[in-house]
Write the C-alpha cells for this entry.
Amino acid sequence: MQKLGLLTLTLIMGLVAISTATANIAEPSQPNSAIKEATITKMYEQDVINQGMDDPVVLQQYGSQELQAAMKLERDYFDREQMSCHIGYDVLWDSQDPNYEQDKQFSVTEQGLVKVSLAQGSDVYYELSCDNSNCQVTDVILDDQGNSLKDYLMEACG
C-alpha cells in the first residue's frame, strides 16, 4: 500500500512539474509581447499594401515622437543641403529595392525587441514603447552591433 502512495505522489509531482513547464512556455516572456508583435505586423501589412509609398512613410506613422523628430532631421537636412543623410536603404526591408511580397516571420526577443525575419535572409529589430493598448516604434536596430536608426539620423543629419 505504501508503494502505491509513493508512486501516486511521484506521479502527481511529475505532472505538476510538466504543467508548470508548459505554462512557462506558453506565457510571453516579455510584457506586451502580443501587442508589440501585432503592431509591427500591421505596419508591414500597410507597407506591403502601399508598396512603400506612404506619405509620411509607414515607419514615421508608427514612430514615437523621438523617432519622428530624428526622421524630421533627415527631411530638413535634405531640404537644406539637397542631398540625403539617410541610411541608404529601406530599413523595414533591409534593402534598396524591397521585395514587398517576400515571406516574413515575426517574433519577440528576450530583450523585448520585435524581430522580423525576412525571406531574403536578414533580420530587422524594432524597439517599441507600449501603453495598455497601443505601441509605438521608438527605434530600429540596424545591425548585430546594436546600432540605432534614431542615433544614426541624429548624428548624420543633425
Summary: The longest helix spans residues 2-26. The first strand starts at residue 104 and ends at 108. The beta strands are 104-108, 114-118, 123-130, 135-141.
